[in-house]
Amino acid sequence: MFTFLPIIWFAVFDWEKDKEELLRNPKLYKIGLLDIYFNTYVFCRWFAYAFSQGTLLLLLTYHSMNFSTSESGKSGTLYISGQFIFSAVVILVNLKILVSSYQICFWNCFWIFGSIASFYIFFGILSAISASEMFGVF
Predict the structure, then answer these.
(1) Residues of the chain under the 70 pLDDT cut
(2) Which residues of 65-77 are buried (b: 16+ CB within 10 A; e: fewer)?
(3) Taking the alpha carbons of 12, 102, 42, 7 in that order, is the dihedral positive or negative?
(4) pLDDT per residue as tens digits for the range 84-112
(5) How far, in Å, CA of 53 to CA of 16, rounded?
(6) HSE of 27, CA atoms in CB hemisphere, 13 A
(7) Contact 118, 20 (CB under 8 A)
């Protein structure tokens, strides 16, 4: 929920060239026919980019959560590490969309920053509710 709306907006409404320019200049379609931006090299580059970001996020989490302590003095838990990773993924995905956008407009910023803000709002609300209240477990 926190990452799909900005991606949908980006995929549908972000374009590099307007429709009139594409109709006037058919040579711009040649890049699709020649697979310039969609080939094995580009796929492997994006895969390596995603793998390096995931590895960096894992190492950053492991390093920072290894030294964190809770209020009772216990070291970082799986819940804290998981929440840190999930919040970092939400922020990274949305900022990557912002950086990759050709058009920066109100709606683009609204979906990106709104999804980050809604994540923290939902996190605050759900953190205030205990599991027994949420699921009815006694």
Answers:
(1) 66-77, 130-138
(2) beeeeeeeeeebe
(3) negative
(4) 888 888 998 899 899 988 888 898 899 99
(5) 26
(6) 1
(7) no
